[in-house]
């Protein structure tokens, strides 16, 4: 299969072909404000099965259903007052709600669960694609399972070339981290995946919300509260560790690493870039963004992890950008490093 990259603004015929593809239960990669999605008709077992196959995704890991209008009662039931409040405040936007599913949503979409994850993305192209296709789109992040999520069309092409017919090229995802996922089941709101929308922001709307208490643990349970918790995620090809310490101590630690690894990378705040560059000309130093800048560090994170692959790094050290590991950036880094955190 030839994969074609379609420019939404220049190639209207190409976009119409993408809509036709969705209507024929084919799969199309499209931009959202968080990360790119690999989408198909969420109501079609056939389309959804293709997504799992293309992504090499475990069948029990449910997909997010993307909608373009507020009438979600077609797809879910028992929508609480609190759920309506969240939708009112944050949609369209990077918040995914888990609610009880109705029969129209096939079990293939929900990994066999009675619940479904649903969100309205805040991206013109995504909304237009859903509207024109006349169906909600099931869309996990557009990467091969286990790899960093794709945040621009070319990174999606890197993983999915030859596996999908169309990739719609919008600009790069302005948030760069996947949506916050919140379970609204049984009137017991729990954040299962931290994201751009934080606990504090959600608390202002529904004060009783809490973070899932095992968010920072390595979860090996067979059937966790959210299947995404047990799978490997976002990993670069080389080994990655997080070091929670000063740049001077990290420099000392590097002396040992040079003995074992050949091509070492370091992800650091912009302020430390020159310091590391001066240590060793072979060290691959990548700036994550400015100190404490959650938005910039988050936006660049998945792209930066892929840059270390481009540079063939076999060992990557990331600085610890935030002390709170349930921060969305640290949550992704924890997974990318398989929970390898060193405190010096
Ligand atoms: O920002 C996003 O959410 C992106 C864009 C494309 O919208 N999508 C995305 O999808 O990140 P995905 O499939 O990579 O992540 C969905 C997460 C997984 O961790 C999955 O286990 C969880 O949501 N999830 C989905 N449905 C669930 C359900 N019914 N119960 C518990 N967890 C669920
Ligand atoms: Mg994903």
Number of helices: 10
List the uncertain runs: none
**Total separate domains:** 2
Q: How many extended strands?
A: 17
Mean pLDDT: 96
Helix content: 25-40%
Which architecture of the largest domain would the CATH scheme give at its second level?
A: Alpha-Beta Complex
The CATH class of the largest domain turns out to be Alpha Beta
Backbone CA Rg = 20 Å
Largest sheet: 12 strands, mixed
List the secondary-structure elements in sequence, H or E: EHEEHEEHEEHEHEEEHEEHEHEHEHE
Task: Please tell me about this protein's structure.
It is built from ten helices and 17 strands. With 344 residues, the protein is of the alpha/beta class. It has two domains: 4-222, DHBP synthase (Alpha-Beta Complex); 239-343, Threonylcarbamoyl-AMP synthase, C-terminal domain (Rossmann fold, 3-Layer(aba) Sandwich), CATH 3.40.50. The radius of gyration is 20 Å and the shape is globular. Strand 2 and strand 3 form a beta hairpin. The longest helix has 17 residues, at 294-310. The strands form two sheets. Strands 1, 2, 3, 4, 5, 6, 7, 8, 9, 10, 11 and 12 form a twelve-stranded mixed sheet that branches. It has a five-stranded parallel sheet with strand order 15-14-16-13-17, with helices on both faces. It binds threonylcarbamoyladenylate and magnesium ion. The site of threonylcarbamoyladenylate (TXA) has 28 residues, from strand 6, strand 7 and strand 11.
């Amino acid at each position: 299969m030839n994969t074609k990259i379609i420019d939404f603004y220049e190639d209207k015929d190409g976009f119409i072909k993408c809509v036709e593809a969705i209507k024929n239960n084919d799969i199309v990669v499209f931009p959202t404000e968080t990360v790119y999605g690999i989408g198909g008709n969420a109501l079609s077992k056939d389309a959804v099965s293709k997504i799992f196959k293309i992504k090499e995704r475990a069948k029990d890991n449910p997909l997010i259903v993307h909608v373009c209008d507020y009438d979600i009662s077609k797809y879910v039931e028992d929508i609480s007052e609190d759920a309506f409040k969240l939708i009112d405040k944050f949609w369209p936007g990077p918040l995914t709600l888990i609610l009880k599913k109705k029969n129209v949503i096939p079990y293939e979409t929900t990994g066999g669960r009675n619940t479904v994850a649903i969100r309205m993305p805040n991206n013109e192209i995504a909304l237009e694609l859903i509207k024109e296709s006349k169906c909600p789109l099931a869309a996990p992040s557009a990467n091969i399972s286990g790899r960093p999520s794709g945040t621009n069309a070319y990174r999606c092409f890197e993983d999915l070339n030859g596996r999908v017919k169309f990739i719609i090229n919008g600009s790069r995802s302005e948030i760069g981290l996947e949506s916050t996922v919140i379970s609204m089941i049984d009137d017991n709101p729990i954040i299962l995946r931290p994201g751009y929308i934080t606990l504090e922001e959600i608390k202002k709307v529904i004060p009783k919300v809490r973070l899932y208490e095992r968010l920072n643990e390595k979860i090996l349970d067979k059937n966790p509260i959210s299947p995404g918790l047990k799978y490997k995620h976002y990993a670069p090809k080389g080994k990655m560790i997080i070091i929670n310490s000063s740049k001077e101590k990290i420099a000392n630690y590097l002396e040992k690493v040079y003995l074992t690894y050949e091509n070492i990378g370091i992800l650091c705040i912009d302020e430390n870039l020159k310091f590391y560059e001066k240590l060793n000309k072979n060290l691959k130093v990548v700036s994550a963004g400015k100190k404490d800048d959650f938005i910039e560090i988050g936006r660049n994170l998945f792209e930066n992890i892929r840059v270390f692959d481009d540079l063939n790094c076999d060992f990557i050290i990331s600085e610890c950008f935030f002390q709170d590991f349930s921060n969305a950036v640290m949550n992704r880094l924890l997974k990318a490093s398989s929970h390898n955190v060193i405190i010096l």
